Structure formats: C-alpha cells, structure tokens
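Me: I keep going back and forth on a fold encoding question. No explanation is needed for now; the record alone will do.

Assistant:
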Amino acid sequence: MNAVAYAALGTGFTFLLTSAGAAVVFFFKNEIKGNIQKSFLGFAAGVMVAASVWSLLIPAISEAEAMGLIGWVPAAIGFVAGGVFLFALDHLLPHLHLEQKQPEGLSSNWKKTTLLVSAVTLHNIPEGMAVGLAFAMAAQHQDPALMSAAMALAIGIGIQNFPEGAAISLPLRQEGFSRFKAFLYGSLSGIVEPIFGILTVLAASQIAGLMPWLLSFAAGAMIFVVVEELIPEAHLGEHTHIGTIGFMVGFLIMMILDIALG
C-alpha cells in the first residue's frame, strides 16, 4: 500500500475509536463525572506529550539529519509554526469548551452543540496530522520499526479518543438530543483526523524533504493544545491531582507503546 492508504487506515482507526466513545450514549444517559473527566483530560495530555516527543520530534530530527540538515533547525521551526497555527485557529474558530459558558474565537450565531463539537475538533486536527505522517514515513522508508511506531501512535491516540467521543455525546443527550443525534455529533468531532491526516500526507508527497518540518509542525500543534486547553481543564476546581495522575498514566502508556513497538 502507498502512504495515503496507510494514513487513511491509521486515522480511520482513531476516528473509529472516537465513534465508539460517542456510542456510549446508547447505554448511558448521564454526563461523565467531574473527577473522571479530569482524569481523561490528563490522560489525553500525557498521551499527546509523549507522542509529540517520541513519535514526532525525535523522528523529525533524525529525518533532517539523514537529509544532511542540522537536525534541530527544522524541528524547532516546525514546532513553533505548529503552535502558531493552532493559536490562530483557537482565536478564529468559534468553539465552546465543556463547563464554560462563554464561547471562544470569532463571534458567531452557531448553536451550542456546534460550538462544543468545534472545540474537540480543534485538537483532533494535529492528532490526525501526527498519525497520518507517522504512517506516511513508515510507508516511504518501508521500515517495519517505523510501521510499529506508527501503530503505537495510532493506538495511543485512539485510546484517548474514546472518552472524547463520550464527552461530546453524553452532554448533548442531557440537553435533550436524541441518542442517535448525540452519537452523530460525537462521532463527527473526530472526522477531521482522517481528513487532515490524508491532506498532510498528500502535501508531504508533493514537496520533497518536507517530512521533518511536518512532523515537528504536528508536535507543536499538539503541545499547544495540551498547554492551552487540556492541562488547565484537567486542573479546574478541587481534586486537581486526578488530572496529574491521568497525565502520568497517559504519558507512561504512550511511552511504553512507542518504545516497545518501535
């Protein structure tokens, strides 16, 4: 298979896990409790930080050095560019985080449901890019170790996508949506992962030598999401240690997956 096909499979898996999480609404009707939500947010942050380091930044440096470049230069520039990209999206795209009343981004007349889905969509974009690029790099090099590392990344991102789907569908059910409609919105929040994963791979295939920059770009975008949204939300209110424990567990699992399968 070519790089696009591998990227489609990898990001399709993470989208499937988001949909599986959203399907929880067919079995439960209550929202996720505060402490559980904090642990999920912390877990997602841990997975994304570990993935940014082992699956994106380190490979970006290695790729750049193999091309005869100074390894840290593309990694640093791409990392900053990814953060700036998400910063711009955060200020432009209307969205609403759970347990907040005031939407962020440009003013709009979007419904609350659309704003909630938009918030999750924001940090699914770099996740899709990361998984797509990991599989694309493995396909380009035909390296079993890189393929295993890409699979580890997809598994890690997929695991943390499961509660994200539930975190969208269950609150929508509470607001009076039918179970199917709540599931549909929760599932659609993850559709950007295969879209951006495939688009990024197509861009990389058109411009030779772009892979180190794109890998670090995805890392910078993910770290921005972690620092700007996930960690602060995981430490709101009381019992903030729950979010910290979730972070450590997520980081450890992603690190083990990447090293064991890489």
User: Anything to note?
Assistant: The chain has a mean pLDDT of 85. The chain has nine helices and no strands. The CA atoms of residues 85 and 179 lie 35 Å apart.
